[in-house]
Amino acid sequence: MRSxxxxxxxxxxxxxxxxxxxKHDDREWSPEELAELEAKWGTEYGFSxxxxxxxxxxxxxxxxxxxxxxxxxxxxxxxxxxxxRPGARFGPRSIRHASSRQTSFRAFNPRAxxxxxxxxxxxxxxxxxxxxxxxxxxxxxxxxxxxxxLGRRQSVSALAPKPKLMTLGGDHSLTLPALRALKAIxxxxxxxxxxxxxxxxxxPLAYPSHWGITEFTHGSMFWMANKxxxxxxxxxxxxxxxxxxxxLTGSDWxxxxxDTSQNWVRFSADQIDEIGTAGIIDGIMSILGTEDPVYLSxxxxxxxxxxxxxxxxxxxxxxxxxxxxRILRGIEGLNVVGADVVEVSPAYQNSGEETSLAAAQxxxxxLSSMVKKGLADMGKEGAATQKDEL
Length: 390
Ligand SMILES: *[C@@H]1O[C@H](CO)[C@@H](O)[C@H](O)[C@H]1NC(C)=O
Known about the structure:
Blueprint: H1 2-20, H2 31-41, E1 71-76, H3 91-98, E2 123-128, H4 136-151, E3 164-169, H5 175-186, E4 191-195, H6 221-227, E5 239-244, H7 254-261, E6 264-268, H8 271-288, E7 293-299, H9 321-330, E8 335-342, H10 354-377, H11 386-389
Parallel strand pairs: 1-2, 1-3, 3-8, 4-5, 4-7, 5-6, 7-8
Helix pairs in contact: 1-2, 3-10, 4-5, 5-6, 8-9, 9-10
Bound molecules: 2-acetamido-2-deoxy-beta-D-glucopyranose.
Keywords: Hydrolase, Manganese, Metal-binding, Signal
Protein name: Arginase family-domain-containing protein
Cofactor: Mn(2+)
């Protein structure tokens, strides 16, 4: 202890000497001295720092091809494909802000038995994709290229054969560019697990179309994905919706029948009252398994507006934040190759940030599961101190 204090004083002396004369100190700093500076000044408390997700290192990955990572948080501030309240372009900033109390030194996840930020995976915040708010065709192309460009990066750890993207939305239409990128990268269609109040497999003709049809919306991106062959279709029970409670078009079940014909299985919000979170978890896992690549998309409107009013198309009667988190914890065995949290529209949330807090927690749980899955796949599950052995 005394020697640490002594080194500290020594350093302080050198620093003030360096400040005292005009020329900068260009001598070599030893690793010990740099470590001492880090220990002294490197801490970011929950309320400090300039606001990357969970205080992770922030790098503009899109302009630096040399940056490598195992998992990247990437913002997609885009909201011009919505049908009701706009504002999700402010989602990434707001979710990052609400993640402030996730600091690497206090992020051990008891249910997962790991700290996702202090384990094998190099997790960084790649910042935001600069997406035009003026033209959705250009915006879609920008997102597709950005996701593919980042998804093709070299991973750092052998535990991550390919790097994974954790996208902060943005409106839900961004899932189409994400699925296009995954199809290109994996060379095959992907299964989807979709938490949402709404189907989002809507034929664009279901919207008033007298003046023309716009296919790319936050309610039809899965319909487009199906048409483009981006979704796994070797079984009719290929992808899963969970938390549904939307009204349907017209006066019959056509929307649901269309959805079934696109190979989706539906779990409604109400089902949780009969089968509980455990029943929802079992249902999802029995369909998706632990091997096939799955894209996990969380529309924050799966939560009840009591818990997440800050969203574009709120629907009463949804799940609690605790129920959603419990379900996410229960499906940690899925082979998630990419994920998003979308439709956080902070202008409609309350000053306590409940919606963005829920979204930030969802991201934390998904990151925990991705890191844990990497350990499980290598038969190294469970050890909290695994990092040193890898
Ligand atoms: C599955 O998708 C592929 C690619 O779009 C398509 O060629 C094929 O006909 C589809 N199969 C079924 C059973 O729908």
